[in-house]
């Protein structure tokens, strides 16, 4: 492998004005403008070879993450890819444990989101380089990534037996059928009942069988909306509900109990994402109703996930490709989930989250869990048009990506148009505001 | 009370080159440059009336916190002090739950440190205004703050009985004797044995009886240093040890067991600050040795403290004036600690942490815990000269501050000199680097 020295890191603040149409609205994020801190790495080996990475945000605050990426970039620029991947754990620690910067984390919040953006770009770069160097047709890049992850596991002697048996079959199954997905696009909190009915009917026609509804702002509204959706999808399709942290512990139990008649599979983010023991209480109270607790999109690192698993505080692990330290940390979380025999059902949506996380969940199925039982990956149908290799959904399944890399390269035109605050989209909005 | 509209918020990146002499060095922060994001609020009522606040950092990364303060400032400028304090809880939530910015937290890391800097300035402003308006001699500003906090408790009907009985006596006792302190200045990890011996002997001569030693990098070193200090201070003085998160759970238990012969009162930050259940295991294992677990300086919010208390994962609550959401959140933590009957022993040192936290610990004693048993406040003897009303230590006790406000107004000359990267101190260091 060539050394591939990283000679430049650029980061841009890219925002989409999704709040204008209430896409993505929930009980805590009432006006999100889906955004990313978008990182591009350049190397000295080949002008065309770049690594693309991002972290997802929801508008204001993206500039803080951009600032953090810039601060961390001094630890990246000048390193060779070879140095990085030959001690990827050490490199992760370099970013997360800088003797001065770790104070403003450690491994949480802004600095962790920035670490994810950078590491996603490094993984993308590595996947592209590997594909080139190994000089054989890539079946799919996902499996290429999985291959590298498997090597990493071996190298670091993580003592969990990875499911070897049947790996080949599962690989073929995924290429043919894809990984099961559920949709969150039908029932954002800000949508009217009419929108909800129309979107839900369309989704059913397209083959969707699993639906998530946002709840938590008003109980009567929730009852009306859940009742409407359950009627539309029938008793055999799957319904999940998501409160986005709106409640305290007892409120969560009372509220969800009142929605139990609609048979949701899980309640997602019932309370503060830091409250491991609170989630454990909620899990225990809702278990007799057949409702599990799902959380993870704001769970900031592997140590928090470890405790959620130890305390039986969740029944569905929702990994996020940008909240924790990229593939490195998600790998640890996937392995822990397998050890505790808890299904991984990733958080996705936003901008680029579906593109990224499909790699992780395919790896989980093919090489770790070997099961689809109670497993599915979130899908939200917007903003994919801004990516060079957007996710492919067929019959409500993620079809494994075939292009090299980690799938989050954006179209340069989209990036420029949506750069905040100077891109043309935002200049136009500012002009309208002045009129 | 006048409305006192906040018309301007400025924030500056102020760094002290402490790494040059290894002040503040520990097992995880080997080269800290003690720093602050320094906030000044101006009002429309009186040019001389300002609110001063800060959050502590250790060098690189301060610029990220400054960026976050700027992002949050739009939620502060334009508000009147009256609006804020008449619904202080609502104002706290406004800062911590902005529908877009909360994504990059919530309530943790950079955005929480920035929230603390702003709220510290608001509390300072409020204390100054109250002192003026009530137009009577302030005994000490601490008690003025305590008075306001007490009102707040009453308003929000927090159901904990605050110790009324004997309050007057404790107030007088504090004015006379001060609050017991311990010193961390003698035994930073980067100090030589000779430095350590000298500083320890000087501290003993000044009346110090409680000493903290940094450990965790090398066991043989730790044994040598602890043995040396225990010999110097004798069997009856108090020794604490601090690993600054260096170990994993089992390593912590093994390592501390080997230091048990030196009879430390506590082991501080034995492992990852997020690992509530890990700390619970360590607490359980060390209890038979008579060693407690202390943590909190990197515990990012009240929900984490709640779990530490619920899980019996700590025996000493180390509140920090800048890590969580200022007085508002520390109040909740102090009350929870009292409910669980666990002593509060604040983290201090850094820049301005002693100045701030003395108000909180005096409030704890006078109005909540009413006990000094196993209680003491950290003190580090440096950088106080940059403050307008530096802490006063007499016979190893914090003497209650008498100047109005929250005591973290810095000398403007110090701020200008140490502004990063353009202050003269940093320009000189840059010049030396070039030579």
From TrEMBL, chains A, B:
Family matches, as SMART domains: MR_MLE (SM00922)
EC number: 4.2.1.68
Keywords carried by this UniProt record: Lyase, Magnesium, Metal-binding
Co-factor requirement: Mg(2+)
Catalytic activity: L-fuconate = 2-dehydro-3-deoxy-L-fuconate + H2O
PANTHER family: ENOLASE SUPERFAMILY, MANDELATE RACEMASE, MITOCHONDRIAL ENOLASE SUPERFAMILY MEMBER 1
Family membership noted in the UniProt record: Belongs to the mandelate racemase/muconate lactonizing enzyme family. ENOSF1 subfamily.
Name this polypeptide is given: Mitochondrial enolase superfamily member 1
Naturally occurring in which organism (per UniProt): Cyprinus carpio carpio
Upper lineage: Eukaryota, Metazoa, Chordata, Craniata, Vertebrata
């Amino acid at each position: 492998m060539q050394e591939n020295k990283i000679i430049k890191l650029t980061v841009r603040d890219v925002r989409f004005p999704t709040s204008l149409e209430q896409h993505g609205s929930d009980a805590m994020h009432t006006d999100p403008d889906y955004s990313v801190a978008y990182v591009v790495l350049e190397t000295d080996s080949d002008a065309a070879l770049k690594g693309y990475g991002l972290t997802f945000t929801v508008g204001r605050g993206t500039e803080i993450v951009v600032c953090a990426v810039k601060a961390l970039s001094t630890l990246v620029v000048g390193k060779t890819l070879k140095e990085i991947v030959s001690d990827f754990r050490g490199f992760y620690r370099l970013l997360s444990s800088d003797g001065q910067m770790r104070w403003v984390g450690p491994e949480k919040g802004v600095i962790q989101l920035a670490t994810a953006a950078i590491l996603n770009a490094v993984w993308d770069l590595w996947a592209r380089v590997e594909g080139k160097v190994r000089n054989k047709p890539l079946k799919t890049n996902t499996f290429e990534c999985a291959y590298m992850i498997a090597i990493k596991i071996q190298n670091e002697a993580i003592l969990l037996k990875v499911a070897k048996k049947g790996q080949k079959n599962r690989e073929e199954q995924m290429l043919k059928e894809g990984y099961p997905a559920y949709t969150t696009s039908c029932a954002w909190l800000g949508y009217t009942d009419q929108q909800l009915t129309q979107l839900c009917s369309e989704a059913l026609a397209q083959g969707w069988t699993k639906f998530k509804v946002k709840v938590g702002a008003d109980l009567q509204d929730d009852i009306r909306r859940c009742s409407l959706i359950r009627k539309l999808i029938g008793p055999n399709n799957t319904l999940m509900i998501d409160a986005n942290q709106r409640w305290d512990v007892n409120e969560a139990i009372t509220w969800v109990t009142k929605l139990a008649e609609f048979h949701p599979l899980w309640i997602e983010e019932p309370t503060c994402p830091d409250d491991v023991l609170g989630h454990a209480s909620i899990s225990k109270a809702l278990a007799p109703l057949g409702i599990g607790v799902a959380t993870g999109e704001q769970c900031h690192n592997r140590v928090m996930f470890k405790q959620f698993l130890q305390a039986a505080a969740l029944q569905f692990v929702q990994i996020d490709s940008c909240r924790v330290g990229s593939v490195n940390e998600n790998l640890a979380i996937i392995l822990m989930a397998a050890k505790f025999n808890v299904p991984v059902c990733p958080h996705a949506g936003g901008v680029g989250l579906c593109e990224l996380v499909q790699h992780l969940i395919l790896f989980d199925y093919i090489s770790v869990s070997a099961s689809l039982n109670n497993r599915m990956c979130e899908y939200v149908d917007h903003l994919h048009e801004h990516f060079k290799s957007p996710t492919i959904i067929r019959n409500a399944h993620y079809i494994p990506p075939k292009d090299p890399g980690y799938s989050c390269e954006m179209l340069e035109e989209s990036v420029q148009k949506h750069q905040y605050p100077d891109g043309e989209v935002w200049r136009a909005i500012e002009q309208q505001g002045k009129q």
